[in-house]
């Protein structure tokens, strides 16, 4: 393909609505020509140029033009950015003028996709850009920046390179069958495989934390009517978001609020008090509460401190919702509210809190963070489920490789090593199928 076969793409890169400045961005072989006509002057590399933008003789705006010549640009192609006044009308007219002059509207994520295809960034880095833009907490933003700088990709690449080296050794030995056994010891293949295993599991653990911090978690508050779920939600948000009364059955609908526990983005859900009822509205509320609890990452089960048998009440709640402790599913955090009303909460597995006084609420926050694997140290990089799946796939093949090594079936060992390498390659986009690439970039913003 010659460069002229590549479309020149254009998009408004700033968010919709009015602002001080708005940016229209072009990338591709015709960007410079298009902008020369619109700006009435040639673009000078890497300089801010004051321009008067015109189309068909009509003035559009007064602004700045920045030209980043390929291959040293974000996409690796010629990129021009037009900084104009942040009026939706001005930006739309500029966009239309660029399209009239031969650019085509960019698809979501197409700038990043081009950066990936031109080897400016790998796939995990491209995803980190989208994660940075969408980050819902400072911790998530910091972790995304680290992934973008290649911290995650570098660790993946290191493991992939080790695997590849081993595979080449193994394949070379296949041609000299009499030396197989000696070969395994000479190159300490079993040791190398087991150190790869521990490195891979460490990376998997970090990625799990990275995914949690990136995507956040949902936390459902459940309990019998009047246990103080809505009061707790109000306490955590610091606002009077939910209606609180002393009448059991006050909350009917789900109430969802987004907040941040330290650096963990949380979607907190208040639910209707769980009880059998004849009221059809309340019954629907209870059924929604149950569904929401089952979908949540973490369930905070509230019992009332003035209740005699906390454990019995907790068990009854779990039964009502249909979750069991200790199996796959939401993490369960038993908590006892209204501690201000009792003298002793004693030693128990229940988190002692008071929505009224705020006592114990910071421990609750810490417990939620811990329950999803976060500690007080910050997370190193963001990750996605796709990365975790690929790492798990690599770990599975690694287990087979470890089992195969002592049997001296070197062809099988080499094949397992290839599978590990391919699974790791999928993370950075070396072995990722095209349709998956399309799907990943389609979730980006337009103009990025
Ligand atoms: N003393 C004390 N009272 C509390 C506390 N938390 C809630 N309450 C009171 O308990 C009553 C019920 O509180 P809500 O927050 O509405 O309880 P809920 O669990 O949302 O109740 P439903 O929506 O009916 O399921 C209200 O009168 C609150 O003021 C607490 O920590 N201490
Ligand atoms: Mg309520």
Molecular structure report:
This protein is 46% helix and 18% strand. It is built from 15 helices and twelve strands. The longest helix is centred in the middle third of the chain and has 27 residues, at 189-215. The protein has 448 residues and is of the alpha/beta class. The protein has three domains: 3-106, 2-Layer Sandwich (Gyrase A, domain 2), CATH 3.30.1360.120; 128-212 and 382-442, tRNA modification GTPase MnmE domain 2 (Four Helix Bundle (Hemerythrin (Met), subunit A)), CATH 1.20.120.430; 217-296 and 298-371, 3-Layer(aba) Sandwich (Rossmann fold), CATH 3.40.50.300. Helix 11 links the parallel strand 10 and strand 11 (331-337). The chain has helices at 31-39, 88-100, 110-117, 123-134, 138-148, 151-174, 180-186, 189-215, 229-237, 280-295, 310-321, 361-371, 385-404, 410-428, 434-442; strands at 9-12, 19-27, 48-55, 58-68, 79-86, 104-105, 217-223, 255-261, 264-270, 298-304, 331-337, 351-352. The structure holds guanosine-5'-triphosphate and magnesium ion. Guanosine-5'-triphosphate is lined by residues 223, 225-231, 244-246, 248-251, 272-273, 337-338, 340-341, 354-356.
């Amino acid at each position: 393909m010659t460069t002229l076969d590549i479309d020149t793409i254009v998009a408004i890169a700033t968010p919709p609505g009015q602002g001080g400045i708005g940016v229209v961005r072009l990338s591709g072989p015709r960007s410079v020509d298009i902008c020369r006509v619109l700006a009435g002057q040639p673009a000078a590399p890497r300089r801010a140029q004051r321009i008067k933008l015109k189309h068909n003789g009509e003035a559009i705006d007064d602004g700045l033009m920045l030209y980043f010549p390929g291959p040293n640009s974000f996409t690796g192609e010629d990129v021009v950015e037009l900084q104009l006044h942040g009026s939706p009308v001005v930006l739309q007219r500029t966009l239309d003028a660029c399209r009239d002059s031969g650019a085509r509207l960019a698809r979501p994520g197409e700038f990043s996709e081009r950066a990936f295809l031109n080897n400016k960034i790998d796939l995990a880095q491209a995803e980190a850009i989208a994660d940075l833009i969408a980050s819902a907490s400072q911790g998530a933003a910091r972790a995304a920046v680290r992934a973008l700088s290649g911290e995650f990709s570098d660790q993946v690449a290191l493991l992939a390179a080790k695997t590849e080296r081993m595979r080449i050794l193994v394949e070379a030995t296949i041609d000299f069958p009499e030396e197989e056994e000696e070969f395994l010891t000479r190159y300490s293949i079993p040791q190398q495989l087991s150190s790869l295993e521990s490195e891979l599991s460490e990376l998997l653990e970090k990625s799990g934390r990275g995914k949690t911090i990136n995507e956040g978690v949902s936390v459902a508050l459940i309990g019998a009517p009047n246990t103080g779920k809505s009061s707790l939600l109000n306490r955590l948000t610091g606002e009077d978001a939910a209606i609180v009364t002393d009448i059991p059955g006050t909350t009917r609908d789900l109430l969802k609020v987004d907040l941040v526990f330290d650096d963990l983005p949380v979607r907190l859900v208040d639910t209707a008090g769980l009880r059998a009822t004849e009221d059809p509205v309340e019954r629907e509320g209870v059924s929604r509460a149950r569904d929401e609890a089952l979908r949540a990452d973490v369930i905070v089960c509230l019992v009332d401190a003035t209740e005699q048998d906390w454990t019995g009440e907790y068990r009854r709640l779990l039964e009502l919702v249909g979750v069991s402790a200790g199996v796959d599913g939401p993490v369960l955090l038993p908590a006892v509210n209204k501690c201000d009303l009792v003298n002793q909460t004693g030693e128990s597995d229940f988190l002692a809190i008071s929505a009224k006084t705020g006592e114990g609420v910071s421990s609750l926050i810490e417990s939620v963070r811990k329950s999803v694997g976060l500690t007080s140290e910050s997370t190193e990089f963001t990750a996605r489920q796709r990365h975790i799946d690929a790492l798990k796939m690599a770990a599975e093949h690694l287990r087979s490789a470890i089992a195969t090594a002592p049997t001296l079936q070197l062809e099988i060992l080499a094949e397992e090593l290839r599978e590990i390498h391919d699974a790791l390659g999928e993370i950075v986009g070396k072995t990722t199928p095209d349709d998956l690439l399309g799907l990943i970039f389609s979730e980006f913003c337009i103009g990025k």
